[in-house]
């Protein structure tokens, strides 16, 4: 993983141990610095995930900063630069267990939606970026990264990384890039032939 995906962010400010219930509560500088937040998966949505933020816990100080109510508030998270297919959402449901811990690398924010690189742990020194993984499996397509200027260094670097994953799926014919067999293509061509459709209608009438 490159630095943008793996760089850690150590707490230097009380806000980093505050639980964020909605995207608008996250300071703008967190977005600008691409801070990573830890979260717990609550549900899979049409655009990505609903995630409960898990703040860094510091004894004595954390309880003082905790918000009252005790309810679960979730952040709407979109996989940055990715448009999921229906199969992609099913894959996320199958591979993200309820309450599983994920890391959200903040990329941008649009109203109450966070655009993030979402990763899960794969051992003490490894992590898997879900944005790249669904593209590598042909379960999503790349789209412009919302909230970033198309000529910015971050946009170009992130889009190039995601595009490489998508091209790999296309070359290997995975998921949405899987080509029909010769028999399937021939059968479809026959079904679409106007003469064949006319003959079928005649047989129905007789």
Automatic annotation (TrEMBL):
Taxon lineage: Eukaryota, Metazoa, Chordata, Craniata, Vertebrata
PANTHER family referenced in this protein's UniProt entry, alphabetically: PROTEIN C3ORF33 (PTHR28434:SF1)
Protein name: TNase-like domain-containing protein
GO cellular component, one term: extracellular space
